[in-house]
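User: Run a structure prediction on this.
Assistant: Running it now.
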Amino acid sequence: MIGWETVAVRDVADVFDGPHATPAKTEEGPWYLSISSLSNGRFDFAQSAHLSDADLPRWTRRVAPRPGDTLFSYETRLGEAAYWGHDVPAALGRRMGLLRPKPGKVEPRYLAYAYLGPQFQDVIREKTLHGATVNRIPVGEMPSWPLLLPPIDDQRAILGVLDAIDGLIENNRRRVQLLEEIARAIYREWFVKFRYPGHEAASLVASPLGPIPAGWSAGRLGDLADEIRESAKPGDFTRSVPYVPIDEIDARSLTLHRSRPGEDAASSLRVFREGDVLFGAMRAYFHKVCLAPFEGVTRSTCFVLRPRADWGVLPLLYLDDDETVAYASNHSSGSTIPYAKWDGVLSERKVAIPPVSLAKAFSKIAQPMLLHSRSLSRQSGELAATRDLVLPKLVTGQTNVSALNLDGLLEEAVA
């Protein structure tokens, strides 16, 4: 650890906290970055909101995120942080702060890794103020906190290792996103615009939904899938399977990327099987719809919907359709926390139902894409585990970066 030293945070970065209130949210506009935006050291834009252009100056009066900053949570989700590398308008949310590196003192991206490393995480735990409702860290005191740093050249070498792993994870994320968009595009062409193979020879006939191809029928979502209400109590079974609460499901992602240990499952549990569709019923407008890749348990905040025989993965795409999610949201009940309802409501949504043969043809194309997305997601999980294994050793000097067999690590992770 030649050249490593412990410095005060103020020696290498300036510390800022964000506004202490919340602006009105909008459907589009500058990003509003809350603690929900932080996900395992990364930014999850699917969990981020927007504010208006008119409100942006007010909410960035104290500070505005800019490329190179490290954003962190100082209440509730303590220890969470992520590097901000986006040159786009954005504002910090409540309970959010940022570190702005001083030029020449620390590599900006390395600062984020150092924040997430065990030495600084220990400092955060030591300095945490425990309140009756939430825990927090005193941001005003952070400039004096100790931070272990290697020489700049070592920082860059360590970044080379971590960037190689993160680059593979990001590449997989983009491939998953592309595969899902292709599946959605085919779905829209065939089942929304009725431009499926052989449509030229089919005439349109009148139906309660309007003109639909001959051989199709006007039906309901409940004709394609059934809600499964198999409850479970915490025990040997729930401890043996993954637990997927609604907050582990990414918005607008057909692929389930994360789960929790079954030991975390506590109440209002529902069992799901591989191939079921998990549909976020609580605040349905967050658009959380995914295909279950394994057997597990979720909570009653999600519908467990099982596609009927012969329909393959087509019900997943019907349920993921923006109009379906909007229907579920518009017909939800509850003013504070709105919940969608399946029986008599979402199950009754009118849809054009194709011949089974066309559903099977679609599944023959789409299912391999979704399975490949699942495989890429699993590979990314292994890569992330590898990164999380080497990160604490690299940023504390326990592992000499020059002696690290990166190729061997990556080969083992993606095998």
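The first helix runs from residue 9 to 12.
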